[in-house]
Structure formats: C-alpha cells, structure tokens
Write a structure and sequence with these properties.
Largest interface: A-C, 49 and 48 residues
Number of strands of chain A: 2
CATH topology of the largest domain in chain B: Rossmann fold
Radius of gyration of chain B: 18 Å
Largest sheet of chain A: 2 strands, antiparallel
Oligomer: heterotrimer
CATH superfamily of the largest domain in chain B: P-loop containing nucleotide triphosphate hydrolases
Number of domains of chain B: 2
Order of helices and strands of chain A: HHHHHEHHHHEHHHHHH
Strand order of the largest sheet of chain B: 6-7-8-3-9-10
Distance between the termini of chain A: 11 Å
Distance between the termini of chain B: 35 Å
Order of helices and strands of chain B: EEEHEEHEHHHEHEHEEHHH
CATH class of the largest domain in chain B: Alpha Beta
Number of domains of chain A: 1
Radius of gyration of chain A: 20 Å
Structural class of chain B: alpha/beta
CATH architecture of the largest domain in chain B: 3-Layer(aba) Sandwich
Helix content of chain A: over 70%
Strand content of chain B: 15-25%
Chains: A mainly alpha, B alpha/beta, C mainly alpha
Structural class of chain A: mainly alpha
Shape of chain A: globular
Chain lengths: 326, 251, 305
C-alpha cells in the first residue's frame, strides 16, 4: 500500500518536472511527444475501466476517442473555440454514442459482444469518412487548439502538457474513487461472476451500461485533447485497428490496474518511437528496413505474452488485480 | 388467505420438449417446503422460472400476494426471493466477507455511488460479518472464497442468498456432491435459518428432505403429482409408483 | 433511374455478397464450433490475394495462378491453425482477441517484407470486356465470373455440409461441441480441415476481388468487419445464415451507395441530400445489423436451439 503510494508520488513528481527537464536538455520537441503519450494514456485508462474492471471485451473503444476528437474539432472549426465548452460537449457526445452502442451490444455475450462493438465502431469510422464537409477521408486541419482562458496559452507546448497531465490525473483519480466505491465493487463482481451478481439482486445490464458510458466519456476527453494537440483530426483514429492498439496498451500495462492503461500507453508509444526514430546500428546492418516494421515486433511480443502466460493474459495479472480491488 | 408463494399453472417448453407443464404449488410462510422428483422432472427449469432467469410460456407466480411473473431477477431479489445455485457460484477471488458484503450491498440502496469508499460503510461489513457467523464461516471471513473447502463453499453459496435477507429462500440442491458429514452441516444450517425464512428446498437427498420438510411436493414429468406432509407423501401410492423406491420410503 | 441500372447494381450487390459469404462461411464455423473469435481471418484473405497476384505473374495465366493460390493459402491456414490458433480454443476470449490481433500485425509486416505494400492483379484479358446481359444492358463479364464462382462455391459448400459425413460432423459440432466430442470425432483434425477450407475460401475471395479493389496490405481489415456483420445477422455457426446475411449485406450496401443520395434528393434539399445520402449509405449495413439484433438477437438462423 505505502509502496504503491511512493511509486505514485514519484511518478507524479517525474511527470511534473519532465517538460522542464526536457527544456533544460534542449529537447523541447519531446514535450509534444510526451503530451501525446499522456493523451493515449487517458484513452487506454478509459478502456481499462470497461475491459479491466468491468470485464467487457469492448473492441470499439476507438469510436469514442474518435467521436470526441471529431466533435471538439468540428466545434473549433465552426468557431466555438472554448475548451470549457468543446471538451465537455465532446465527452457528452461520446457518452451518448456509448449509451447507444452499449444498449445494443450489452444484451449479448462473448463472441457476439466483441463483434458487435467492433462493427458499430467501424460504422462510426465510415460515417466520419463520408463527412465531406469536415474533410472526409482526408481529415480536417484545425486553425488552433481549443482556448482555455485564464491566461493559459494552449499553443504553448509546456502549458498544453500540464493541461493534459491534469486531465490524466483527474481521470485516474476518478477511476480510483469509482473502483473503491459501491459502483466499482459491483462492476468487479459482475466481471468475476455475472450470473451470481444478478442473483444477489444487482441489475447487471444497467451497471454494465453505466460503466460503458463512463468509459466512453473519458475516451471522448482523450479524443478532444488529441484533436487540439495535433490541430488535426482524421478518420484513422476511429479505425478498428486503433481499438486493437488501445487493447494492447491495456494488456501491456496491466488489466484492471489503475496505472495499467497509462503504463501500457507509455511503453508502447515510447518503444514505437525508439524503433522508428532511433535505430540500433548493428541491427540496421542485419535488417536495414527494420524500423519500418515495428509492428512485427509488437505482434510477436503480444503473441508471446498470450501464448506463454500460464493462465492467459487475464491470469498474468490476476494476483495483482485481486489486490487492487481487495 | 394469501400464501407466501403461489405458483399457478406454470409451463415452459423448449422446442417440442415440455420442461414444466402446468406446475402449481404453494409455499407457506415459515415452512420448509421440499420439492422432489426424478431427474428431468423439470426441477431446474422451475428454479430458473422462479428466480427469473427464464420466462415462463404460461402461468403466474405470486409472491406475498403480488404478481412477480414478469419481474426481472434482481427485482425478485428486492421483493424478497433469493436463490442458491446447484453448482457453487461464488466470487472466487474475493474474500468470504467481500462476497457477503456484496450481497448486503445489493439489498441496501442504490450502488450508483461513484465517490464514497465502500470501505467506510461499516454497516455493510457488520451485516456481512453477521451472516458469516450465521453460516459458520466467521473464522474464515478473510479467506478468498475460491480457497475454501467444498463444504465451506456450499455454506457460502447459501450465505450469499441469506445475506440479501429474503423471506423465501430457494435452495437448489444444497447437498449436491457432498459427503454425509458435509450434508449434516448444511442440514444443521437450514435448521438454524428456517426460524427466520421460508425455504423451498429442491433436493435429492431423501434423508435430508424427510428430516427438514414440513411439506413435500413431488414433481414428475413437469407436473406436481402430490403435495403433503412427509407421512402422506410416504404413503402415497402414486408417488411410490412414479418415483420413490420402496427402500427410500422404509427409512 | 432505369430498371437496367437497378438490375446492374443488384448484380453488383450479389457479386459482393457472394464474396462476403466466402469469407463469412469459414469464420462462422470457427466461431460456432470452437466458440473462438479469429480476427486474423482477414489476413488469410490478404494472403490469398497476394499469393494469387504472385502466381498469376509467375505462371502467366490468371486461372492457373488463382487455382494454385487456393491450396497454398489453405496450407498456410492449416499451419497457422496447428501452430497458434489450436492452443487458443480453450482460452478466454480476451486471449483470442489479442493473439489473433497480434497475428494481423505480424502477417501484415510479413507481407510487406516479402511483397511490399501492394501488388498488381488485373482481370484476365478474355474477361475484360462487357457482355450484353439483356438488350441494352451490358455487364462486365469478369463480375459475372465472380457471381458464377461464388454460386458454385456456395453450392459446393452446401453439398459438403449438408450431404457428407464430414459436413454432418461439422454441423453437429456447430450446434453442440460436446456431442461431437462424444461421438468420438477427432475434433482436432476435423478442425484443422475446417480451418484449411475456410482459408481456401478466403483465397478465392481475395484472388477474385483483387482486380476490382486493390491487392494491398490491410485489405483484409475492413472486409473482416463486414464479415462479422454478416455473421451477426445470419447467426453464429450457421452456413445458411452466412449466405443469407452475406447477400443481404452485399445488396443493401451496394444499392444503398448507388441510389440513396439520389433517393434523398427526391424530397430533401440538394445540399442536404448530397451530404446525408453518402453518410447514411455508408452505415446502412450496420443499421441493418442493429435492426436484426433488436428483432432477433441470435441472428436470423441461430445454429443453437
């Protein structure tokens, strides 16, 4: 417990001084990269809520991230530049979408549920692809980031980094509270034994739907931040393979662990970056093209984790998961 | 006068197969009512219909005078009807106390509470501790349910239903897969809890049934062919022919 | 809008639907019998297309190339089943999702390394022209070939599943795996075979659609989701459901894209119709799926009772 706390505070301290350290080391470019990592950390953490705590194998999470990105992007493009309006509206839109998709898909189980979340998410992908007014398949450039007011300049990379960091911590703290509150107990109970949860009197469907909607809203926040971060939105954020990548982040970082999503996003994105941008010389002489095939490595590592973890991926983290909500 | 539970002409078919056909049955407040019958008589289907996991094709179920035929499972639990499972169904990775606290939580207000730590709700833990004592697992309260012995798990299985404070306890073969000593423990447990709650006991163990039941109903081919006190059932010719072996009746 | 145009689009829809069926048929059996989700099915479609393109180039004959690509893809599919997928049957769905998603990443890169990002595969010269189907209605002969092959494959599959002993075992497995095991079926070998057959069907679809779409890395990823929609509509484990679902999806998608913008233009202002038409058309099959789910949650032809 106290070890957890110490690690958490150390992580927080490191995250707080990171942009200053990067500036001191004349590596300001990496402040933007760090913001991107944190945004995906929010997205992966929101997936972890449904997947890790709720046990729902939702394979359409990118749709909520993408919807948040598009809604906040469209608002900026249409002249509604305030983040205080744009981001909550983006979260609300993702929540409404999650409500609709969840209401339809949570009535089903197993393979069905996976396929249906996938299909509805892909529907959103095609929908934004067909929106010619907002860039269609080419995506849409935004004139500027959402405006924060109070003297903050969102265009400043360091300022934006701290905004994203605050959002990540808000999401993680809310998750922490939620998991240890009544609601969290119920969704974990449903994950552990759904029919028993129903039999002791919990309206299982309703709780799963609420969990799904909350995660969708948090995903929408990540999307809104993403749109401002790159001043650009494009349909590929919603493609179903992006949902797969989010899932990989959660698995890498730890299913059903508070820090799992953030950790996994960090590991995956940093590794991808290292492989693509900082090739190892001796490896280059062996395989000159290897930086372009980073996904081969990601795939092989994932496959190895799944095949050689003794009780499957879920089992790999089960002991720690038990502690987390114990 | 209204009985605690009134089942009227309940029917369910799967394709062409009749699972329950015109089942009528009453459970009175305060009684242990046993339901016996050969395999395939429709007991499992009846339990599913009563608990609400399966919708009947026809017939009605009334609980305390209120029609609950169309209520969802969780609404029936709220109404005071709780079930145990034939195959142990517990939260294996949670401790005994956490298991029971969940069931207590289910009956005590909304769980759409996202901020306040549940650990601060001492009422939940206290009530769960009481139930743990009731089912004889007070010493084992902190053990993960999955690590309990089989007999202890069966007790917890019943405890989860009890913790919802039902007025009718639906026990689906609580002695299933138990040795004589473990069965004794469950019989004693039912003897203990029956003072506060009516029990509909589905069971194959005839010793237990005849020891515990105030009344017995016999289900054969989806119909109740007889209901009565243990002595009457023992003496019933039709029951003898349809189901009970002579040796079971001579004990 | 003329009737010949509608007929032409309906034929296009049928053609696309039949190819979707080839993808969905193998997939639905895997889902139904093994209760296993396989995301890498689309990768076999991609592999089939790349192999066909290579072999057509190498042999100089479209027919020969495609015919060789089919067993080659089937072989790869069976090897994949033996090496990886087989160990996943008993695992939880999350493991299956992750492992097969990992396979997509791996196979995409392998294809990129071996062949590059895309390959050329064009219609055979003999079939490049149209035929006059009805007076005043020319139709591309290559698309007719696809329809013919699709129908033949569907018919063959039907005979195989409905009339042969192997098919009987597969059906038994799809509706009740325990029963199939109890019947003493060597389910492992049966399943490797089913998987090989599924891969072969993928190769047919990939090779035939290659000239119409593009043979490129990632080509299997979009069509895989459509195959899922087909299975959800048809009902998991049902070949008949897959056929009906596939044709439905193919026709609805094609007709919707072709006519919905025009249809909206009949009663909506033009600028609105030109925006809403394509948008609705692109999500039409998913709305269809939602409706089916609402009315029949188990799909149109549930394999399990």
């Amino acid at each position: 417990m106290s070890a957890h706390r110490i690690i958490a505070f150390a992580g927080l301290a490191a995250a707080l001084v990171l942009p200053l350290a990067l500036q001191a080391a004349d590596q300001s470019f990496y402040v933007g990269f760090a913001s991107r990592v944190l945004i995906w950390a929010i997205a992966a953490s929101s997936l972890n809520l449904v997947l890790g705590y709720g046990g729902m194998i939702s394979f359409g999470h990118a749709a909520f991230v993408g919807t948040g990105a598009y809604v906040s992007g469209i608002l900026i493009a249409e002249g509604v530049t305030s983040a205080w309006i744009g981001w909550p509206v983006a979260m609300l839109a993702s929540a409404v979408l999650a409500l609709a998709i969840g209401a339809a898909s949570l009535r089903t189980r197993g393979v069905y549920f996976i396929m249906i979340t996938l299909a509805f998410a892909q529907m959103m992908y095609y929908l934004v692809n067909s929106m010619k007014a907002y860039g269609g398949d080419e995506g849409m450039n935004l004139p500027a980031r959402a405006v924060l007011g109070f003297g903050f300049d969102p265009g400043n990379e360091v300022t934006f980094y701290y905004v994203v960091l605050a959002a990540l911590f808000a999401v993680l703290y809310a998750t922490h509270r939620l998991v240890h509150a009544r609601f969290g107990r119920v969704i974990v109970a449903i994950r552990e034994n759904e029919s028993r949860a129903e039999a002791i009197g919990f309206p299982v469907y309703r709780y799963k739907l609420v969990c799904f909607v909350l995660a969708g809203a948090a995903g929408g926040l990540a999307g809104a931040l993403l749109a401002s971060h790159g001043k650009y939105v494009n349909p590929s954020v919603l493609h179903w393979t992006q949902s797969g990548t989010l899932m990989i982040m959660v698995i890498l970082g730890g299913v059903g662990r508070l820090w799992g999503g953030a950790l996994g996003a960090g590991v995956l994105l940093v590794l991808e970056h290292l492989i693509a941008e900082h090739p190892i010389p001796w490896l280059l002489t062996l395989a000159p093209d290897y930086p372009q095939h980073a996904n081969l490595g990601v795939g092989l590592v994932m496959l190895a984790i799944v095949l050689y973890a003794p009780q499957g991926v879920a089992g790999l983290f089960s002991r720690k998961t038990g502690k987390e909500h114990g | 006068m209204a009985e605690l539970l009134e089942i009227h002409s309940l029917a369910k078919r799967f394709g062409g197969v009749v699972a329950t056909d015109d089942v009528s049955l009453e459970v009175r407040a305060g009684e242990v009512h046993a339901l016996i019958g050969p395999n395939g008589a429709g007991k499992t289907t009846l339990v599913a219909q009563l608990s609400g996991s399966l919708a009947p094709d026809a017939g009605t179920i009334a609980f305390e005078g209120r029609d609950i035929t169309r209520l969802a499972q969780h609404e029936r639990v709220k109404a005071g009807l709780a079930r145990s499972f034939q195959l142990t169904s517990i939260f294996g990775r949670l401790s005994v106390l956490e298991n029971l606290a969940l069931a207590v939580q289910a009956r005590s207000g909304s769980s759409l509470s996202f901020w306040r730590p549940v650990a601060a709700e001492h009422a939940l833990t206290d009530a769960a501790t009481d139930v743990a004592g009731e089912i004889g697992l007070a010493e084992r309260a902190q053990v993960p349910a999955g690590e309990l012995a089989h007999g202890e798990q069966r007790a917890l299985e019943m405890g989860l239903a009890l913790a919802t404070r039902p007025r009718l306890l639906l026990l689906d073969e609580p002695m299933a897969g138990m040795g004589p000593e473990e069965s004794q423990r469950i019989v004693a447990l039912i003897e203990r809890v029956r003072t506060g709650v009516a029990v509909l006991l589905i069971e194959h163990d005839m010793d237990a049934v005849f020891r515990l039941a105030d009344r017995i109903s016999v289900l054969v081919n989806g119909r109740v062919i007889a209901t009565g006190a243990p002595g009457e059932i023992r003496a019933n010719e039709e029951v003898r022919k349809a189901y009970l072996g002579d040796e079971a009746l001579s004990t | 809008m003329s009737w010949t145009l509608i007929l032409e689009q309906a034929l296009n829809g049928l053609q696309f639907g039949l190819m979707l069926f080839l993808l969905a048929a193998g997939l639905t059996l895997v889902f139904g019998i093994m209760d296993m989700i396989n995301l890498a099915h689309g990768s076999l479609y991609m592999l089939g297309a790349f192999l066909a393109a290579t072999l057509v180039q190498a042999t100089g004959s479209f027919t020969l190339g495609v015919l060789l690509a089919i067993p080659a893809t089937a072989l790869i599919g069976m090897l994949l089943e033996i090496a990886v997928l087989r160990t996943l049957y008993a695992r939880d769905h999350l493991s299956q999702v992750l492992a097969t998603f990992a396979l997509i990443l791996i196979l995409n890169e392998v294809v990129r390394i071996v062949w590059g990002s895309d390959m050329a595969l064009s219609t055979p010269a003999v079939l490049s022209g149209p035929v006059e189907l009805l007076p005043g209605m020319p139709y591309p002969s290559y698309r007719l070939l696809i329809i013919a092959v699709g129908l033949a494959a569907a018919g063959l599959l039907y005979l195989l599943v409905a009339k042969t002993r192997i098919g009987m075992l597969v059906r038994a497995g799809a509706s009740n795996r325990e029963m199939a095991l109890a019947m003493g079926v060597d389910i492992r070998r049966l399943f490797t075979l089913v998987f090989g057959a599924g891969a072969a069907l993928c190769a047919i679809a990939g090779a035939l659609l290659g000239p119409l779409f593009a043979v490129q890395v990632g080509m299997g990823e979009s069509i895989l989701i459509l195959a899922f929609v087909v299975i959800v509509i048809g009902g998991i484990g049902s070949i008949r459901g897959a056929l009906v679902g596939a044709v439905l999806v193919g026709v609805v998608d094609t007709i919707g894209r072709a006519f919905l913008p025009h249809f909206f233009g009949l009663f909506l202002p033009p600028q609105f119709a030109s925006a809403a038409g394509p948008a609705i058309a692109s999500v039409l099959v998913y709305l269809l799926m939602a409706v089916v789910l609402f009315v029949k949650p188990q799909g149109l032809f549930p394999a399990r009772g």
